[in-house]
Amino acid sequence: xxxxxxFNLARFILLLxxxxxxxNNFNFMGYINPYSYILFIILFPVNxxxxxxxxxxxxxxxxxxxxxxxxxVHTVACLLLAFVRPSLFKFSFGLSYEYQTVRLNDxxxxxxxxxxxxxxxxxHLTLFVLEVFTFEYLWDIILRTIISTLFTIIICxxxxxxxxxxxx
Amino acid sequence: xQQIFNFIFKNSYRMLFLLLMILALSLTIQSHSYHKSKIxxxxxxxxxxxxxxxxxxxxxxxxxxxxxxxxxxxxRLKSLLFNTKDTTKMAKLDTIKGVKKIDxxxxxxxxxxxSSQINFLTLNSGFKQGVKSxxxxxxxLGIVGVVENTSANYCTVLSILNTESPINAKIKKSNHxxxxxxxxxNTGFVQLVDVPRLASVRKGxxxxxxxxxxxxxxxxxxxxxxxxxxxxxxxxxxxxxxxFNDMTSLGHVYIIKNKDRDEIINxxxxxxxxx
Lengths: 168, 275
Known about the structure:
The structure holds two protein chains of two kinds. By secondary structure, chain A is mainly alpha-helical. Chain A has helices spanning 2-21, 39-43, 50-68, 73-93, 110-132, 138-163. The two termini of chain A are 21 Å apart. The model of chain A has no long low-confidence stretch (mean pLDDT 85). In chain B, β1 and β2 form a beta hairpin. Chain B starts with a helix and ends with a helix. In chain B, strands 1-2-5-4-3-12 form a six-stranded antiparallel β-barrel. The mean pLDDT of chain B is 83. Helices cover 28% and strands 29% of the residues of chain B. Chain B has five helices and twelve strands. At the A-B interface, α3, α4 and α5 of A face α2, α3 and β2 of B.
C-alpha cells in the first residue's frame, strides 16, 4: 500500500513537471498542445481509494491552472474525468471490472484503448468548452478537441510503453 | 438525525465531488468575468520560480535574435537622436516642474503563451520593482499586453492575444480611433473594430495606440492594416491588423508606468459623480 502511494506521488509530480516544462511548449500549429498529465488519473489503481483520486485530481488540476493562468478550467476537467472514471471502466471492461485485475499499463488491447480514448475525449471537451466559454466558436472547440485528443493519445500510449514495468 | 448522518455517509463521495466541483467552477467563472484579477495566477513564488528556472535554460537558444533586435532598436534610437533639430538643447521633459510623466521598467518574459483564447505571459518583475496591475507592456516592436496580477518578484500580463478586453487604438494617418480585439484564430493578426466608415484606410496603413487609454502612451506601434471588412450589423469597419510583434517569441519587454494615471482616473470618477 505504502509503496503504491509513493509510486503514485512520483507519477503525479513527474507528469506535472513534464507537462509544464515540455508538453505545454509544443504549440503545434500555433495552439495545439498535448495534455498528457491526465495519465495520472487514467493510470490510478482501479481499486484505489476513490476519495484520494478525487482529491488528487483536484490538486492536479489546480496546479495546472496555476501554471497555465487558466482560472479553474483544468480543475473542472480533471474532477469530471475522475468522477466518471468508474463508469468508463464499466463501459470498456465490462460490468465486473472490479473483480478482474485490470492493468492499464500493459500491451494495448481494444478495451484499454477505448478506455484511454474516452477519458481523453471527455477531459479535452470539458477543457476547451470551459476555456473558450462561448458557443460562438463551436467549430473551433471541436477542431481543437479532435487534434489535441489525437496528440494526447499518441503521447499517452508512448509514455505507457516507456514506463511499463518490465517484470513478467 | 440518524437518517441525516446516514445520508451524508452514503453519499459522501458524491458530496465531496460536488463540493470540489463547485469550487472549481466558481474559480472558472470568476476568471472569465470581466476586469477582475484572478485568484489562481502564475504570479507567485512557486510557479514564477519554476518558469524562471526553465527560462534561464531556454534563454540561451535565442540570444542571437535578441541581440539583433537590440541592435536594431539602438540604431533606430540613435537615428532619432542624431536627427533632432537642435542637439545642444536637452530633450524637453514635461512642462510641470520638469517631471517625467512616464517611467519604464525593463523586464523579461519567463513564460509565453499564445495557444488559448485568453493568453497570459509571466514576467520576472513584480511590485518590488514598482510594477502594479493595469500597466502597459511593450517591446521594441510594439505593444505586448497589460499587467494583470503582481507578486513580489513576478507579474502576469494579459496579452493582446485575448478575446475579452479591448485596447484603444487609432489609425496613425487619420487619427480615427477603434478598439483592438482578437478573434482567437491567428497569432499574427488582431482586429481593429468599430472604426467609423468615413475613415479612409488603405492596406499598409500603420495602426498605433490611441491617446484615450491611460495605460499606454499614444503612438506606440501595433501593426499594419492587412484587410478591411464592413460589419453588416453595425456598418463600422473591421480591420485585420498584421502585428509588428511576433507574439510567439518574446524576450525582453518594457513595462510602462504612467505617473498621471491615478490622477486622470480620479478626475474622471469625480466628474462622473457630479453629473
